[in-house]
Amino acid sequence: MSTPAPDLDPTASGPTANDPAAIDPVATIDPIGAFRLDGRTAIVTGASSGLGDRFARVLHAAGADVVLAARRVERLEALGKELDRSLVVRCDVADADDREALVAAAIDRFGSVDVLVNNAGIGIQGPAEDEALEDFARVVDVNLTALFALTQLVARPMLERRRGSIINIASVLGLVASAPIKQASYAASKGAVVNLTRELGAQWARKGVRVNAIAPGWFPSEMTPEMFEPGPSNDFMVRNTPMGRGGEVHELDGALLFLASDASSFVTGLTVPVDGGWTAR
């Protein structure tokens, strides 16, 4: 004999499975509040320009204390003057001593690290057959190995507290080929970041630490100036992006806050493309 399904009619009397009162009689619905980061500390690497600068500002605006990390201290200090709850730390993510000093400074100043945004990265263009192995190794070292090493340092105390969110900035070129733009090392490193995100998200899922990634499409940055100037590169981007344009930096805000906050408390191992439809083609 089958068991009747529970009554999920919202008009039915008494608490039901889709009635917050059935779970918590004093519960209130506050969807915007889930995106707040008050009382939390976030590290943003590559915060001296472009997307990293924006990420730091957005997390700060959502209530977080922000640790600004990059090699160009002058730019970091200028940003730090605008963000009252911030700490400037010079850091080359490819340097082990710098990584350890960054995490130690963040914990010493704010007590813990709740969010890590792995944004720092580099890229090299040129035919794969001509790319020097030293150049390939350098891109992988910064974009993948250093990202993993810093993630390890931050994750260990997170795992002890059973709470934390790590956000890797990948790329749509980690999901699809970059050709005809020739950058084999960049595409390889970002593809590895996507799968590393899956693996760490799965490994730490039951330990309270979430690992996700954002895969931006074409956005203005120091790495993409030619894509936003009149000419063949811009024509290529516009023609091949279903939305017919590149992204604006504020269009990454929602994905960032979603993954950093409790709004994504049941999400891990996910890579979110924010690409105007580039990977949907």
Provide structural commentary.
The protein has 281 residues and is of the alpha/beta class. The protein has a single domain, classed as 3-Layer(aba) Sandwich (Rossmann fold), CATH 3.40.50.720. 38% of the residues lie in helices and 14% in strands. The chain has eight helices and seven strands. It has helices at 20-23, 50-61, 73-82, 96-110, 133-161, 184-203, 232-240, 253-260, and strands at 41-45, 65-70, 86-90, 115-118, 164-169, 209-216, 271-274. A seven-stranded parallel β-sheet has the order 3-2-1-4-5-6-7, with helices on both faces. Strand 4, helix 5 (133-161) and strand 5 (164-169) form a beta-alpha-beta unit. Helix 2 crosses helix 8 (253-260) and helix 5 packs parallel to helix 6 (184-203). The longest helix is centred in the middle third of the chain and has 29 residues, at 133-161. The chain is globular and about 55 Å long.
